[in-house]
Design goal:
With 254 residues, the chain is mainly alpha-helical.
């Protein structure tokens, strides 16, 4: 599956439809699909801005503890997400620390992280990791792939430590910021890398493995090539016979 197909998966998530419903877009370039997704996001944000801007104004006038309790009790996750995007980063981050992990996962699924990077950067790594684990349990791969673009280094490290190989493949395939692929791989243990290779074979996740490997460079590509060479023979044989692309095969030194 190409990068364009990964973008279609992200767009489908944004629109709340199945990826198959957008198959007619598969011939478009990945950059064009990315631009389309950004424009749709801007439209959706502006279309409902008058609703959540009022909520943000009220939130600024009450203590954070009160605002947090009211938010979780009364606000749908989408409104809470949009409100957070309009609050001062320090206030929004403080409120995040007062909300349950489950509700934060609901809000994260509705949030565009690129609209509030300063807020996300201030959330403690342990909180980010807990929400990430909950999102992984829900298989919210596109949501997680979007947040990787803006989380801090310590938060990324804490989150990666909570994931197993199959989850890492799913998230890696839909990363918004592919430049962090090497950084993420550097954080992985040898066991996690082995799990990724085994998961690709066991669940036929060749598109996901291809997407991850195609964006590795240098030492991290060499490292996973070493894990592949050391894998049990059935795993190596399956990988050699798989439909991986040229870039992925180069990363695995096949």
């Amino acid at each position: 599956m190409s990068t364009a197909a990964a973008e279609i998966r992200k767009l489908a998530h944004q629109l709340g439809v199945a990826s198959a419903d957008l198959d007619f877009l598969e011939k478009l370039a990945a950059d064009d699909l990315r631009e389309l997704r950004a424009r749709i996001g801007d439209y959706l944000f502006e279309a409902d801005r008058h609703h959540f801007s009022k909520v943000a104004t009220v939130s600024r006038l009450v203590p954070n503890a009160v605002a947090a309790k009211v938010t979780e009790f009364a606000l749908p996750p989408l409104i809470a997400a949009r409100t957070a995007e309009l609050l001062e980063p320090a206030k929004a981050a403080d409120m995040v620390g007062r909300l349950s992990d489950r509700y934060l996962a609901d809000v994260s699924a509705a949030m565009d992280p690129t609209r509030c990077p300063q807020v996300i950067a201030q959330i403690p790594p342990t909180s980010v990791a807990k929400v990430g684990a909950e999102l992984a349990r829900r298989k919210e791969w596109v949501v997680m792939g979007g947040f990787v673009s803006v989380v801090s280094g310590p938060a990324l490290r804490a989150s990666v430590a909570e994931l197993h190989g199959e989850q890492l493949l799913h998230v890696g395939y839909v990363l918004d910021d592919l430049s962090r692929m090497d950084e993420i791989t550097q954080l992985l243990t040898d066991s996690q890398l082995d799990e990724m290779l085994c998961a690709a074979v066991a669940h036929q996740l060749w598109d996901e493995l291809d997407g991850v490997l195609s964006h590795l460079t240098g030492a991290q590509a060499q490292r996973i090539a070493g894990r592949c060479a050391a894998a049990p023979e059935p795993i190596r044989v399956a990988i050699v016979a798989s439909p991986l692309g040229a870039s992925a095969r180069t990363a695995l030194a096949l």
